[in-house]
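[job 0412] stage=fold_complex status=start
inputs:
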Amino acid sequence: MSIDTLPPAGPASSSLAHNQLPRYTTQIVLVASLAVGAGLSAVFGGFSPIRFAVLSTLVFLIVNTTLSAVVEGRRKAVDKLVTALVYTAFGIALVPLISVIWSVLDNGLERFSLDFLQTSMRNVTGLNDQQALEGAAPFIGGAYHAIVGTFLITALASVISVPIGLLTSIYLVEYGRGRLARAITFFVDVMTGIPSIVAGLFAAALFAVLFGVGTRNGFAGAVALSVLMIPVVVRSSEEMLRIVPNELREAAYALGVPKWRTIVRVVVPTAISGIASGVTLAIARVVGETAPLIVTAGFTSSINTNPFSDWMMSLPAYVYSQAMRPLSGSSPQPSFDRAWAAALTLILIVMVLNLVARLIARLFAPKTGR
Amino acid sequence: MSKRIDVGDLNVYYGSFLAVEGVSMAIEPRSVTAFIGPSGCGKSTFIRTLNRMHEVIPGARVQGKVLLDGEDLYGSNVDPVTVRRQVGMVFQRPNPFPTMSIRDNVLAGMKLNSSRMSRNQANEIVERSLQGANLWNEVKDRLDKPGSGLSGGQQQRLCIARAIAIQPDVLLMDEPCSALDPISTLAIEDLIGELKQNYTIVIVTHNMQQAARVSDRTAFFNIAGTGKPGKLIEMDDTTKIFTNPSVKATEDYVSGRFG
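[job 0412] stage=fold_complex status=done
writing structure:
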């Protein structure tokens, strides 16, 4: 029998076919539910976004599922219900994120400017703020000193943590056997859970013992941050090193390459994209730490580029001090605006770091092209 | 260049588990020796002891002697790294280095050890090794492309080129064709036939036709049951093993009446 002659199509009600809703039913139901939700929320005590969202979602879930259950049957109805629930959960998860970004943008753009990024708070007093509010003088004072501090402290913390973290993970993956490796893994896990203020107090106490009570400088802050950063770096690089196929190590050994060269020239380069993006994300995680920096690096209104002496401002500490201790008690708004603008700067830095991490992952990834 | 291997009463352990027991054999230079036998009988374990690759697995150790032209590989001051430079290995799955180009993959043995060489020398080695692995004509125009972009069979030949680039005395192949299609397999088998002019070749294979086609001598390994150690049952000229073996178990295995 030749296969290019299909048997004639059977009757319309084949045993494989089932009733189906028209293609855009879900979308139409969604639009209708939004309308009904708006109407219902107006009826029940006036329109509000939350009431509107909750009512529309409920209406949509009920109508869409029932419609599908009646026409299409149980399995499709359950599918639609769960799909809708998943989307709802996703929407709820997005709410805090969007609201944070929105409020930071909304409040932060007030003072965010090139001038804000390029000036410090030196000699800016409450009097300036009052005059600025009265229109007698321009708004002055920025976060330059805090940005410099954040960059220096985070860079130092990375210089301390990345070698320690990377070497630890290499030990765990390539050499560690038995008790010592298990102990290190355990303590790395414990370190991951250390509250950041404890890390700060540890660094403060360490520097108090070494250099006298009350010693605060950028380096102490970097030590505190590296206590938080090391476990993250260890964990992420360990994961990345473990997924390097054993075959590559064996291939190198079989060529008469010593173990350490295999690690340096084969294993780490193969995993470098993941390691680099893991490190970048670890930096992004500690750049916004506040408590440990307040107790170790302190506050200042001046630019300090020497992390080894004197107090050093950082962006989170700047936000904290502007928000909690406004320069002018009677007219705190300019200080609040500065706090928001600094928060915006911090979010931008974290965002850029995340993008850099992705870029690094893509740039260093092993090529597969032909 | 090519050297002989003599194995004397070799036991291989993983921790306290005896994996291979009492193997003695002689592997002739400039010939192909095939290891056959059912899965789990210790062929791969044993072939790895010939260049001390089994030591990569924690807890693995051996008792007995392996002599490479009379020199004991397990002597007290022998560095496994030196051994592996003389006894190369090709694995079951092609494993070119994903971060390196085709050219760098061939030169990996030198580059990873940071040997100094001139550009001309390097070009010469790349061409000679790729010619030797019958891959030159297919890749000569894209030597700077990543090795992972090649087909499976080409990747495996690249791995062979990489192994012969450091000019070992012996080439071990652990099921080199089991991940390849019949045409690539044929290419590799032809290659083995050419390589034996210069190298001592030991090959593990599950494909008995392959063993019959490529090898001069064949060793049959077997295992009495799970948890028991693998043993060398008999070793003889390939034609004899496949036509008139002296042990019943070998005959059952090669004729497919096993188990």
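[job 0412] summary: The two ends of chain A are 44 Å apart (CA to CA).
[job 0412] exit 0
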